[in-house]
UniProtKB/TrEMBL annotation, chain A:
Belongs to the ABC transporter superfamily. InterPro entries: AAA+_ATPase (IPR003593), ABC_transporter-like_ATP-bd (IPR003439), ABC_transporter-like_CS (IPR017871), BCAA_Transport_ATP-bd_LivF (IPR052156), P-loop_NTPase (IPR027417). It comes from Halobiforma nitratireducens JCM 10879. One of its GO terms (molecular function) is ATP hydrolysis activity. Keywords: Amino-acid transport, ATP-binding, Nucleotide-binding, Transport. It comes from the Archaea. Pfam families: ABC_tran. PROSITE patterns: ABC_TRANSPORTER_1, ABC_TRANSPORTER_2. Residues 2-232 form the ABC transporter domain. This is ABC transporter. The keyword Hydrolase does not apply. GO terms for biological process: L-amino acid transport.
Automatic annotation (TrEMBL), chain B:
It comes from Halobiforma nitratireducens JCM 10879. One of its GO terms (molecular function) is L-isoleucine transmembrane transporter activity. The keyword Cell membrane applies. This is Inner-membrane translocator. GO terms for cellular component: plasma membrane.
């Protein structure tokens, strides 16, 4: 469904990614792990049109989307949850979700209901401002917003960052559930062990290049990968 | 806030400040009861404070809106106020003065000194149509001027940052002001006839109520309520608040940011033009510095309320206007503005981010 082929990208004149290949099939759950500064988030931003495109191709559902702007890519059924500042703090939870469907003429009530069913706390607190909620709840608001257009592919940038340890596995359960319901997931994570244990396939990114690609469990089992990137 | 023992000194200062204001209010009540302060004098002060506060607030809303969306302090805002005043009143003179005096002197608002406000006899009872038409034109013309300036100047520097944009806006302010001087000249002219009054004392216990002030208050309050409705209950308003919160996130959410910026200029400049027009209705005279001189008070209101907050701008305007007038109870007129700004400084000591800063709202 998503095919990244030989992608070069970066910011302005600075090239961060070199010849990246990556694939996500429909319904698949794919993780990108790797050390800090490896360009993990940049891959995701490049898919969503937020970086400077420098070569290669990004194809989504047989359509070339490299070099397109985010406001166009969002119409192609890709949802994106950035790592930081991913909610509108002064807007209510409900308004945050409604903004997720801004490009539609009407608020899609069934998508909104689905999000509320998925994250019941959001239904309960729909009139509260997003900025007044806890980090974990804000992460739910951000995911809910990205799900409002019922995307075929959801891009998640470090959803566990900044969460209290006891909330992390709950968050991963929710990502599993989203994937089980038929949305392909591409996730970037620091928390490599947890992610690789759950995903279908993983990529290890080092220095802006693909280093390893395999099943999540296989990567976890690979001694080289464990030693170099997963801290033992 | 927690226990009193955990108060920071800023919080103590805030408590003292509130206590001080409380003492002043009690003193006003005492004076009213004892008879040191006539009820009608008191309500005149209060009413004047409300009038001044609402007009400053209305003018400040536009500045706060452009700040919250475009992230720069627009120094040409005062001259947008002036633009609204000149364009609106030109329209009102063209309509209301037809047949009284020549087209040329009406078109340039009596730049040649050949007529007078007395001759035109423009007030709300005599020429209601002209006054309302002028109000609409003031909004429309100011919107057009603001959009033209955005396209010519600000749009090219959208991501240049706050300081370059601020400097550019100072240039725009001067250019706009002297374009106005070029056409209308530097003379201060009478524009509106003295307002008729309502001679009963239903509203506030003054002997009479100045109709033009009433028109101003009603217009300002309705526009503010309308803006509140737009911001809170429409998709566009929600998008404006979203963009004020986080422009990057708005972009990746699919909010058409340039269209929101356009709407911000339209609404902000429209309100600003109306404010300029209404100021003249109330003060009856106009010159090319009218808006520029007001800019200090507008900035004071905006910063007091928390820069970027629209409700803060309204609250800030009311505080400045009310303080400026209510201080007449204790001190002479020359010093009231000093007192108003002193109050502003005191509020900053305990809330540097402004009253509504960092709370919510666009």
């Amino acid at each position: 469904m998503l095919t990244v082929d030989g992608l070069d990208a970066g910011y302005g004149d600075l090239q961060v990614l070199h010849d990246i290949d990556l694939e996500v099939d429909s319904d698949e759950y794919v993780a990108i792990v790797g050390p800090n500064g490896a360009g993990k988030s940049t891959v995701m931003k490049s898919v969503f049109g937020l970086t400077t495109y420098m070569g290669g191709s990004v194809e989504f559902q047989s359509r070339e989307i490299s070099g397109r702007r985010p406001e166009e890519i969002i119409t192609h059924s890709i949802g994106y949850v950035p790592q930081n500042d991913n909610v509108f703090p002064s807007l209510s939870v409900r308004e945050n979700l409604e903004m997720g469907a801004y490009i539609l003429d009407e608020v899609p009530e069934d998508a909104l209901e689905d999000v509320f069913d998925r994250f019941p706390i959001l239904r309960e607190r729909q009139d509260q401002t997003a900025g007044s909620m806890s980090g974990g709840q804000q992460q739910m608001v951000a995911m809910g917003r990205a799900l409002m257009l019922e995307p075929d592919l959801l891009l998640l940038d470090e959803p566990s960052a900044g969460l209290a340890p006891d909330l992390v596995s709950d968050m991963f359960d929710r990502v599993d559930a989203i994937n089980d319901d038929g949305t392909a997931v591409l996730i970037v994570e620091q928390n490599a062990k947890e992610t690789l244990g759950r995903c279908d396939r993983g990529y290890v990114l080092v220095g802006g290049e693909n280093r390893y690609e395999d099943d999540g469990d296989a990567l976890l089992g690979d001694e080289q990968v464990r030693r170099d990137f997963l801290g033992g | 806030m927690g226990d009193t023992t955990e108060f920071t000194w800023e919080q103590w200062f805030g408590v003292l400040l509130l206590a001080g204001v409380g003492v002043l209010i009690l003193d006003v009540l005492r004076r009213l009861v004892v008879g040191d302060l006539g009820v009608s004098t008191f309500s005149t002060f209060l009413w004047r404070g409300l009038v001044d506060g609402l007009i400053i607030g209305l003018a400040a809303v536009g500045l706060s809106m452009t700040y919250s969306i475009l992230r720069f302090a627009n120094f040409s805002h005062g001259d947008l106020v002036t633009t609204g005043a000149f364009t609106g009143w030109t329209a009102a003179w063209l309509i209301g003065g037809a047949g009284v005096t020549g087209l040329g002197s009406r078109l340039l608002l009596n730049a040649d000194g050949s007529t007078s406000a007395r001759e035109l006899n423009l007030h709300v009872y005599a020429e209601p149509v002209a006054i309302v038409a002028g109000l609409v034109i003031a909004a429309a013309a100011t919107v057009l001027v603001a959009l033209a300036i955005d396209k010519l100047v600000y749009k090219r520097m959208r991501d240049a940052g706050g300081i370059p944009l601020l400097i550019a806006s100072v240039g725009v302010a001067l250019a706009l002001r002297y374009v106005i001087v070029f056409f209308y000249g530097e003379r201060t002219r009478g524009i509106v006839r003295s307002s008729p009054s309502i001679d009963h004392s239903l509203l506030f216990w003054t002997d009479s109520l100045v109709v033009h002030e009433l028109v101003m208050v009603v217009s300002a309050v309705s526009l503010m309520l309308g803006l509140h409705g737009l911001l809170q209950y429409t998709k566009l308003g929600t998008a404006m608040r979203a963009m004020a919160d986080n422009k990057d996130l708005a972009l990746i959410t699919g909010i058409p940011t340039e269209r929101v910026i356009l709407a911000t200029w339209v609404i902000g400049a429209g309100l600003t033009g109306v404010a300029g027009y209404l100021i003249v209705l109330e003060q009856e005279t106009l010159n090319f510095n009218t808006g520029w001189f007001l800019l200090l008070l507008i900035f004071a209101a905006v910063i007091l309320g928390g820069i970027g907050s629209i409700y803060g701008a309204i609250a800030g305007g009311l505080i400045i206007g009310l303080a400026d007038n209510m201080m007449l109870v204790w001190i002479s007129g020359d010093l009231t503005r000093v007192a108003a700004f002193l109050l502003m400084i005191l509020i900053f000591i305990f809330r540097p981010q402004g009253l509504f800063g960092g709370v919510e709202t666009a």
